[in-house]
Amino acid sequence: MYHIKDDKRAYKSSELIFQGLFECLKSKAFKEITISDIQRVSSVGRATFYRNFDSLIDVLHWRCDLQYKTMMEEYTRLLHHDESSTEFLRYFFGYWMFHSDVLEILINLGRYDIVYQSHYDNSKILYEYFRDSFVINQETFEYYMALRIGAFVNILITWIKNEKKESVDRLVDIIEKLITDLSGSPLII
Questions:
Q1: How far apart are CA 171 and CA 50, in angstroms?
Q2: Is residue 50 domain-shared with residue 69, that is, in the same domain?
Q3: What is the DSSP letter of 31?
Q4: Is there a single domain that holds both residue 85 and residue 145?
Q5: Residues 24, 74 share a domain
Q6: pLDDT tops 90 at residue 137
């Protein structure tokens, strides 16, 4: 778990730790990286590391949460200025086209659970923005979230595993076509 205080110094230390981990990953497998390696590369002391994080995977979890939070907040600011200006699919994949470093690491480690949890936790930002116009009742809300987030995260994982070969527009076209094609089909599992 991470526990970073809400101040500039703690954030800067955490960012240095992430950058140190990112640098270490260029020459070592994640399992081989030690806190001492992070200290050496980042110049952040062991006590500071443990003040902010319990383990190295927590560094990635924090960074994933931060990236998702940034993306969701930027999207709501964009909507606040012009609700018709952008659709979420294009914005979502467009953001990850250029900010997927932590996702790539987590996917390579098979830690999809962290990506899912970060998406779920930060979806509350969008939920709060759309709360008054939300038509899903409380009884089905968790299923709605599971369906929506499961689809988004799994498409994101597949796209990143495929090295983001498709442009954002092409990926959105594929998704929209699949939704259209499947909307009249019986569900087959």
A1: 40
A2: no
A3: G
A4: yes
A5: no
A6: no
How many CB atoms are located within 10 Å of the residue 13 CB? 22
Q: Give pLDDT tens digits for 81-132.
A: 765 555 889 999 999 999 999 999 999 999 999 999 999 999 988 888 877 7
- Is there a single domain that holds both residue 38 and residue 117? no
Q: Closest Cα to residue 112, out of 75, 156, 79?
A: 156
**Quick check: is 188 in a domain?**
no
Distance of CA 81 to the CA centre of its chain: 24
Coil vs helix vs strand at 2: strand
Instruction: Say what the pTM is.
Output: 0.90
In a domain, 189, yes or no: no
Q: In b/e form, how buried is each residue of 57-66, taking b as 16+ CB within 10 angstroms? A: bbbbbbbbbb
Which range of residues forms the domain containing residue 85? 56-183
Contacts of range 81-88, beta carbons closer than 8 Å, 24 or more positions apart: 87/172, 88/126
| pLDDT at 42 exceeding the cut of 60 | yes
| pLDDT value at residue 179 | 85
Q: How far apart, in whole angstroms, are the C-alpha atoms of residue 45 and residue 49?
A: 6
State whether residue 53 is helix, strand or coil: strand
Number of domains in the chain: 2
Closest CA relative to residue 34, chosen from 59, 63, 3, 67:
59
Which of residues 171 and 135 earns the better pLDDT score? 171
Tell me the CA distances in angstroms from 2 to 11, 48, 51, 111, one per residue in order: 12, 12, 9, 16
